[in-house]
């Protein structure tokens, strides 16, 4: 019945410190040994997720930048969607972001996380991978094959940014929240769910055989695509309202995904540990 496992990272597979729990590592390796394919589906950068994958000790498919990039287990790029250069120039412009300067802006190239200022507090999210940003003039990199633009700031400021984007671009962009203080922008047509379908087609597996886990608004399409979706108990209340029929499981800070996988696959918790 369950043929593929797909999971978000932050708020889902990772704990409250945005790190991998040892029990999660043991559980995923036990299932990997049975030949089950894994898919990590996240808003994070590919280089960042590759580091987390190494900590997990498995070779999953990697859906990154909310679906703008898909890499096979051998690291081959099998899908990419970029924001057009002129659009990126507008995404990082002061009149889009807010002349007040309170919103941190960054963009993802294929191999770098570029940011408009130093923000060392963000590095706490990348302890397992060691992935770091590089401060740069974002306008100078607008045509560098940008997968995603990311705004970090107070939710009220981000709401203003979202309104600016809707007014200027309409449906030409996919705009979503990964956290209340993180607004993410990709080209229209990008989503974790669509990227998951790319992987499932490659595996020759129907969506009905896919188990998926998520916790936030950028997981909507992922959970709607999978035949067996599950939502974390710590999920964003707006996600709960949007997908009220999706079953809720444990918390990310209690290795909820791993414990639920043990139930689904009749894997003894003690064996996994």
UniProtKB/TrEMBL annotation:
Q: Which family does it belong to?
A: Belongs to the HAD-like hydrolase superfamily. Cof family.
Q: Which UniProt keywords apply?
A: Hydrolase, Magnesium, Metal-binding
- Keyword Iron assigned to the entry: answer is no
Pfam families recorded: Hydrolase_3
- Record-linked InterPro entries: Cof, HAD-like_sf, HAD-SF_hydro_IIB, HAD_sf
Which superkingdom heads the taxonomic lineage of this protein's source? Bacteria
What PANTHER family does the annotation carry? PTHR47267, PYRIDOXAL PHOSPHATE PHOSPHATASE YIGL
Record's protein name: Cof subfamily of IIB subfamily of haloacid dehalogenase superfamily/HAD-superfamily hydrolase, subfamily IIB
């Amino acid at each position: 019945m369950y043929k593929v496992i797909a999971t978000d990272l932050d708020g889902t597979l990772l704990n409250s410190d945005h790190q991998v729990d040892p029990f999660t590592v043991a559980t995923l390796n036990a299932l990997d040994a049975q030949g089950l394919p894994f898919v990590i589906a996240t808003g994070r950068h590919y280089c960042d997720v590759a580091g987390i994958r190494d900590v997990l000790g498995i070779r999953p498919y990697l859906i990154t930048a909310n679906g703008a990039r898909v890499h096979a287990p051998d690291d081959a790029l099998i899908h990419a969607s970029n924001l057009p250069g002129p659009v990126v120039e507008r995404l990082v412009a002061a009149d889009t972001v807010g002349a007040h300067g309170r919103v941190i802006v960054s963009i993802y190239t294929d191999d770098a996380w570029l940011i408009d200022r130093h923000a060392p507090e963000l590095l706490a999210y990348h302890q397992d991978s060691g992935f770091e940003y590089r401060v740069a003039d974002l306008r100078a990199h607008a045509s560098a094959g940008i997968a995603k633009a990311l705004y970090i700031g107070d939710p009220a400021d981000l709401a203003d940014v979202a309104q600016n984007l809707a007014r200027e671009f309409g449906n030409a962009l996919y705009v979503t929240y990964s956290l209340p203080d993180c607004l993410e922008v990709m080209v229209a047509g990008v989503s974790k769910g669509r990227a998951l379908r790319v992987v499932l087609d490659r595996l020759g597996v129907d969506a009905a055989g896919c188990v998926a886990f998520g916790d936030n608004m950028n997981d909507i399409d992922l959970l709607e695509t999978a035949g067996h979706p599950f939502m974390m108990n710590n999920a964003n209340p707006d996600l709960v309202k949007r997908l009220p029929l999706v079953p809720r499981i444990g918390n990310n800070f209690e290795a909820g995904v791993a414990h639920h996988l043990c139930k689904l696959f009749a894997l003894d918790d003690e064996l996994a540990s």
